[in-house]
Amino acid sequence: MSRIEHVELPGLRMAYRVWGPADGRPLVALHGGATTGATWSGLAGALDGVRTYAPDLRGFGATDRPGRYGLELLRDDVLAFLDALALPRVTLLGHSSGAVAAYLLAQAHPERVAALVLAEPPPPVPLGLRLPDRPAVEPPYDWAARTAVVAELNDPPPDWWERLTQITSPTLLVAGGAASHLPQRELARMADRIPAARLARIDGGHAVHTARPAEFHQVVWDFLASTAG
């Protein structure tokens, strides 16, 4: 079990969950589009000896909804989170838009990322994603955050692709296969561009970590076992 804790960042009060031993290998897990840090409870339970931190990103869950959103803002929030919790170097894991924030941080601050896991990361190419209809019931996040992120994924800055070569950490990219709405060929190209990346495919679609949890947990565990913390 975990409880929600909070940390004060510049201009943002961020909620997070933490699992695992205090002296365990630090892993920071970033959720995707319509979820919160709670999505990583199963993974945390499967990683023996790992200290898993799972923040609710800005606009989501119990974190503040400041009204300003964007993937580079998420990146900067995560860096501030690492600083606030005195985590100088971590394994960084992200799903979907959380994976974008993760690889942007690994590009900009490679010294802070010991290893990188990207689960179905939207590749930094124009994607033509369609924003789903707004739910009739208020969702557990600021709808403006979802709108801003989808718009940015559809028109990403060109340097995001160019700077994939600046990621120096060992990287695992998990693709969800044919059931995913993301272009799997572009995910393979993305893995080829990151110098120390390996590609794993689990046919679970975009939400591969919840659709095929046993396989996902195993491939992450095997990767962590092969890398330094």
TrEMBL record:
InterPro entries: AB_hydrolase_1, AB_hydrolase_fold, AB_hydrolase_sf, Epox_hydrolase-like. This is Pimeloyl-ACP methyl ester carboxylesterase. GO terms for molecular function: catalytic activity. GO terms for cellular component: membrane. It comes from the Bacteria. Residues 26-146 form the AB hydrolase-1 domain. The lineage of its organism: Bacteria, Bacillati, Actinomycetota, Actinomycetes, Micromonosporales.
